[in-house]
Design a protein that fits this description.
about 110 residues; 4-stranded antiparallel sheet; 6-stranded mixed sheet; mainly beta
């Protein structure tokens, strides 16, 4: 059974940084384009960043220049370094493939507030 486990969220002040991690199991990780998504209260889930198997990246305009996605295929892990965080970044963050698998993990809560 596919498992996606996100971690690293928390409460941070505006301008702060967090690094999210996701470990994937029971999938052929190395063949998937991976991504981070987020869902803020009352809003639809949105794509934040993606990374191909070869390491090419894409970002939503709202996070470009502040967030960086990376992956370690040997460890089945994908990361999201988030800098210069803003209150608008507050959301539950999820990792998944792109296009996404039907399974979603529990996500990790990121709250940006003073």
């Amino acid at each position: 059974q596919v498992q996606l486990v996100e971690s690293g969220g928390g409460l941070v002040q505006p301008g702060g940084s967090l690094r999210l991690s996701c470990v994937a199991s029971e999938i052929s990780f190395g063949i998937y384009r991976m991504a981070w998504y987020r869902q803020a209260p009352g809003k639809q889930r949105e794509l934040v960043a993606s990374i191909t198997t070869g390491g090419s990246t894409n970002y939503a305009d709202s996070v470009k220049g502040r967030f960086a996605i990376s992956r370690d295929n040997a460890k089945n892990m994908v990361y999201l370094q988030m800098n210069s965080l803003e209150p608008e970044d507050t959301a539950v963050y999820y990792c998944n493939s792109l296009p996404n698998l039907a399974y979603w993990g529990q996500g990790t809560q990121v709250t940006v507030s003073s």
